[in-house]
Request: fold
Amino acid sequence: MRLIVQIPCYGEQETLPQTLADIPRKIDGIDHLEILVVDDGSTDGTADLAR
Reply:
């Protein structure tokens, strides 16, 4: 099974690193985990950080 964790962001440069770190990388029953950060035009570097 595949799981996509979608994180909508706007101006989250300060909190995004911890949010990403808190997501478990292995979950029982999940073969593939993908994290999708959707930046909505932040100007604080959120998009660069997500990359």
Remarks:
- The longest helix spans residues 16-22.
- The chain has one domain: 2-50.
